Amino acid sequence: MATTSDFRNGLCIQLNNDLYTIVEFQHVKPGKGGAFVRTKLKSITTGKVIDKTFNAGVKIDIARVEHRPHQFLYQDTTGYYFMDNASFEQLMLEASLINAPQLLKEGQEVDILFHQETAKPLNCELPAFVALKVTYTEPGFKGDTATKTLKPATLETGVQIQVPLFIDNGDILKIDTRTSTYAERIKK
Q1: Nearest to 73 by CA among 27, 123, 110, 42
Q2: Taking a C-beta distance cutoff of 8 angstroms, is the pair 156, 176 a contact?
Q3: Are 107 and 162 contacting, i.e. CB atoms less than 8 angstroms apart?
């Protein structure tokens, strides 16, 4: 058991039979009445962000979680397979536990969050940005770079995203995994 004075960003707590991480918190001491703590909590299971206010000093349950680095191996009809970098054990996850499964490529390093007491995987986070190669896109026209016009491009994982007109086949792009959008072209 802990109290609201133990709050910090990234702390994982158990609330209403679900696990939440604290995204942000603010301790408030109004002129009249008791102090309280305003928080933004993100559900680990659903990804939903909620606002919750706690009275100062209220006891909360801290959930013990552990981040373990894994490497993506392959995907088949049953799920996505990962290998623990330390023990070399293989693990299968469903697509619902992965934040951007369409951007996974073989050999990709990911971070899997486990509940320490049950050793159950809670979610799988890709790095904020991944580098993927363009396998097909329509050719752009020379000098067509002044406007913010976009065109579709297919990446090596099979996902299709919108990219600027100057992108060609074979270019390596930096993709934001949180939004699955183009960030920049990586120099060769």
Answers
A1: 110
A2: no
A3: no
pTM: 0.77
Q: Report phi then psi at 101, rounded to 5.
A: -65, -25
10 Å CB burial of residue 96 (0-12, 13-18, 19+) is exposed
Give the range of the structural domain holding residue 141, as residue numbers without chain letter: 129-186
* Same domain flag for 136 and 179: yes
Sheet holding 172-176, edge to edge: 160-164, 150-155, 129-137, 172-176, 181-186
- Residue 85, pLDDT > 70, answer yes
The answer for residues whose C-beta is within 8 angstroms of residue 150's C-beta and 6 or more apart is: 162, 163, 164, 165
Chain mean pLDDT for the chain: 89
Tokens, residue 172: 């390596």
